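S.,

Sequence below, as promised.
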Amino acid sequence: MLKPFDDSGSELDALYSVEPRSNGFDLIVESRGGSDHGPNAARNSEYAPALEQHLTRMGALGMVLDDLQVASSIAMKLPELDRRVSLDKFPLPLALSPATDVRELRHSIGRASAAFGRTDGSDRGNRTKRMRLRMQWPGAAGMTVNAIERMLWRPIAPATDVQPTDDPRELQKRVAQATAHIRAAAKRGTVQPPPGQTTPPKASGTLSRFVRDPNVIAWVLNEAAGNCEICRHAAPFLRAGGEPFLEVHHVRPLGDGGPDTVDNAVACCPNCHRQLHHDRNRDTLRQNAIASIARLRDYPLTATADTVTPATTVIL
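The prediction came back faster than expected:
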């Protein structure tokens, strides 16, 4: 179990732990108890600000609160269905975001906790019970319990903020910078997927091409760890600088309306990349990739490819 730090760097007295799930994880927030003035020492005295801190950090990563359960010793004797609670002002599942009113959400959780087990309809019980927040988040795939716990431990900071560019040579330079930052963050256990660009802008000139985000490319290549994410084989060779030769491919091409985000990009060897573009069964190959790589989403076709010269292949 860990105690989180707030954004000012102060540790909060509120233990929490994480349990992994197939599509995310469970956050278990320990109950508040004891008394500062009674015979029993206070425990988890900063339950409320810590819960708000967790909700804020999970909202920054776009997680979904899928289910909420009381996890007290008494509740744990009940069937799981009977441990669930509903929120009065927030329907579940609830997509968290930076705009979520985490204070009101925390109050709503407190009211649900207090009303749990009461038959008179009141909410005068303990508002700070041990709670289990069931979170949906594809980013948890492949992460260890320790990595998820530490992700919520301290303020979330982007691994890199290298800016997008439409110049292919400059893009490769910026990808190298972003890669160094992301690998350093990965060693600390704090690497996070970059937000990317949902609607990449276009740069006009003699050739119109999309502005690419080097952070997305670097993150995908780091995830691939030198192996093609399609055929699972090692990169065919190393570049002069020692980096595995892989290409970053948009599963839904940018020219077809796909976003420049990590859930629409794969690292692949040149053969698999050409297949994804030109194989007679490329639609099947695309669907197979989406089905086999947990982070990928099936973005719809929203534009025609002839609206822009894509120039989306990045070789690193």
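The beta strands are 16-21, 24-29, 64-70, 94-95, 131-136, 202-203, 209-210, 247-250, 265-268, 314-315.

Coffee later?
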